[in-house]
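Take a look at my tokenised protein here and describe the backbone shape.
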Amino acid sequence: MNQCEIRVFYLCEWKSGHNVAAAARDINAALGEHFVKERAIRPYFERYRSGDEGLEGEERGRPPSHHNEDELKAMGKWIRVTL
């Protein structure tokens, strides 16, 4: 089961008027004990409360590099030489 499919359960629980604790309890009863924690559901309920009912996750791109391309090449060359 992928993350988008799991979020469908969160949204159904939200639309049923359940709070985070009840949603976690219901989902764990259906899919297995410890399947989801309340802290995983809470941010989605906050999004739904603000009107965003999308099932997509937030973009989590890579952090910017602190080194430029030439520095990285030099480090790679140094590692190959010293190992």
About this structure: Residues 52 and 58 are 12 Å apart (CA to CA).
